[in-house]
Amino acid sequence: MNCLSPSILASDFSKLGSQVELLDRAGAQYVHIDIMDGMFVPSISMGFPVMKSIRPLTDRIFDVHLMIQEPERYINEFVDAGADLLTVHAEACTNLERTIQKIKEKGIIAGVAIKPSTPVEQIAGVLKEVDMVLVMMVNPGFGGQKLIPGTIDKVWELKQMINEMGLETDIEVDGGVTLDNVGKVMDAGANIVVAGSAIFHGDVEDNVRQFLSYMSE
Ligand SMILES: O=C(CO)[C@@H](O)[C@H](O)COP(=O)(O)O
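That is the input. Now the predicted structure with 5-O-phosphono-D-xylulose docked in place:
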């Protein structure tokens, strides 16, 4: 099934609660929550208190993208704050296998993310262990960037690798995804689409519905 994961990083934080409720009402299956530490990426975004405050507002999947150095230090806290899916960056973990195992032991969905410059081969060793691979279509750290065209080839490559291994791993794409290019990334093999600016600029409910209708075609 194809799923939409609106990134609340692009939302109006002064009314975050009602924006999350809008996403739910419009039918988005996931809520994408970007956690940045100012080290792995230059910016700092939000943390456990924000997650806890919006958790009671929806039962949609909390898709938490950890852009933090050594994420293994905080797995328990993010699960306690309501994460259903935790994604760590291959480039940020001291021991990627152990970190993924720790997420799975908590009984939630485990994802691994790669930056545009990281080859898909770098995660071949953990592909059997993860439920999802997040392919960054922009350099992580900020919303509102343009999708880097070469990253679409990486999605094709990853999809081929997943098929060759006989797996059914989900592929999530994140960064610069719009209604104009979502068809291309889905053709390449992505089935979970993160969109920030394209959802939160304008009428949020209408944008979610447009994405969902496009993605179900
Ligand atoms: O992880 C990130 C940015 O680092 C993304 O989740 C962005 O927040 C997506 O926003 P747009 O590129 O769609 O505006």
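Residues 48 and 60 are 17 Å apart (CA to CA).
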